[in-house]
């Protein structure tokens, strides 16, 4: 059964590009992270609320991006994001990035995040936690 999907459109600006006038690849990483936040907000469970209400965080522990084609200054790209896998304490978010005008695939990405809590006095001490059932249900 397919779950919730969120789509967002980004206009490529001059500052997003390298000297070859195509998107400088680290920008995709920022857009992918932002797209996950948009996905959770659209599902009604913003990640920042998980942090403030439940003390939970969802850091990225693995990220892969496959570049399939270029995007250039002035292009509109669409990032379609959805949950690809739920584990007990981790989950994957998949992102499909395409050119709005041509529908050509530009990139595919998968990020794995782990649900963790931090020690109150030790912010670098992370403990994996079960993903709350309410979070999972928001994506059904």
Please describe the structure with a list of short key phrases separated by commas or semicolons.
140 residues, five-stranded antiparallel β-sheet, 3 helices, alpha+beta, 22% helix
Task: Tell me what the structure shows.
The protein has 140 residues and is α+β, with helices and mostly antiparallel strands. It is elongated, with a radius of gyration of 16 Å. It has three helices and eight strands. The strands form two sheets. The chain has a five-stranded antiparallel beta sheet, with helices on one face. It has a three-stranded antiparallel beta sheet with strand order 2-7-8. Strand 5 (90-99) and strand 6 form a beta hairpin.
Short recap of the structure:
The protein has 140 residues and is an alpha+beta fold.
């Amino acid at each position: 059964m397919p779950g919730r999907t969120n789509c967002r459109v980004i206009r490529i600006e001059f500052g997003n590009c390298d000297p070859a006038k195509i998107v400088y690849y680290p920008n995709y990483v920022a857009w992918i992270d932002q797209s996950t936040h948009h996905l959770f907000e659209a599902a009604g469970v913003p990640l920042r609320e998980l942090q403030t209400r439940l003390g939970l965080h969802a850091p990225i522990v693995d990220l892969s991006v496959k570049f399939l084609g270029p995007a250039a200054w002035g292009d509109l790209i669409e990032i379609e994001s959805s949950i690809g896998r739920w584990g007990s304490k981790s989950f994957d978010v998949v992102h499909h990035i395409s050119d709005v005008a041509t529908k050509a695939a530009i990139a595919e990405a998968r990020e794995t995040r782990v649900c963790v809590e931090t020690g109150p006095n030790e912010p670098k001490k992370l403990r994996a936690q079960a993903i709350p059932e309410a979070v999972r249900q928001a994506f059904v």
